[in-house]
Specification:
Length: 218
Amino acid sequence: MKVTVVKNVLDANDRIAAENRELFDRHKIYVINLMSSPGAGKTSLVERTIVALRDNYRIAVIEGDIQDTYDADRIAKLDIPVVQINTGGGCHIDGNMIREALPAFDLSKIDFLIVENVGNLVCPAEFKIGENVKIMLLSTPEGADKPSKYPLMFQESSALLINKIDLMPYVDFDLEKAKRDSLALHKDLKIFEVSCKTAAGLDEWIAWLTRRIDAFKK
Ligand SMILES: Nc1nc2c(ncn2[C@@H]2O[C@H](COP(=O)(O)OP(=O)(O)O)[C@@H](O)[C@H]2O)c(=O)[nH]1
Ligand SMILES: [Mg+2]
Ligand SMILES: [Zn+2]
C-alpha cells in the first residue's frame, strides 16, 4: 500500500497567514511577530517600543499566552488597544488565532501591530501569522549556546535583540560567540544589543523599525 503523508497542517496555516497578510496590506498595517523564550523581555520591549513610537503611529498589540492576561494588562495600562489570545496550553500562536483576534480591532485605525508570541524558542518560528517580519529576543542569562541549539528561530527572524545587556557583568554570556553563531545561521540578521531596563541600545532598534514601517507605508 502506498503511504499518504499529510503535511497540510502547515500548508493550511500558510494559507490563513496569507489571508491575514492580505487584510493587513489592505489596511496598511505593519506587523511584527515577537518571539523569545519566557522571560527574555518581550513585554518589556513592547512597552518601550510603544512609548517610543506612539506619537508617530497608531499601535495595537496582540498578546499570546498559555493562560491569563498579565501581559495584556500591562499594555492596557498604556492605553493601547490590546487583545489577549490564550492558547490554553498551546505553545505558539498560529494564523487562525490571529484571524480570530482581529475582529476585536478597528483595523482602519491601526498603523503598526505588535504580536507577542508565546514564550518558546521552538515552534513559534514554524508558524506564519501574516507578519511582515519576525523579531526575536535572546537575553544574556539564557546563554550563548542558544543559536546553535534553536537555529530555526534565528534563521527566520529579521532582527535579533540581545537583551539584558545590563546583566553582562553578572552572567557568563559570550556575546561575540552569540553574534558569530547567529550570523553563521543567518548572515543578514540585524543584531541589536539592548537593555529594556536601562534603555541602552533601544534608539537603534527604534530607528531600524521606523525605517521598516515607513518603507512599508509608502
Ligand atoms: N535586568 C534586566 N531585566 C529585564 C530586562 N528586560 C526585561 N527584564 C525583566 O525580565 C523579566 C521578564 O520580562 P518580560 O518583559 O515580562 O519578559 P517576557 O516573558 O519575554 O515577556 C521582568 O522581571 C523584567 O523586568 C533587561 O534588559 N534587564
Ligand atoms: Mg510577556
Ligand atoms: Zn508550539
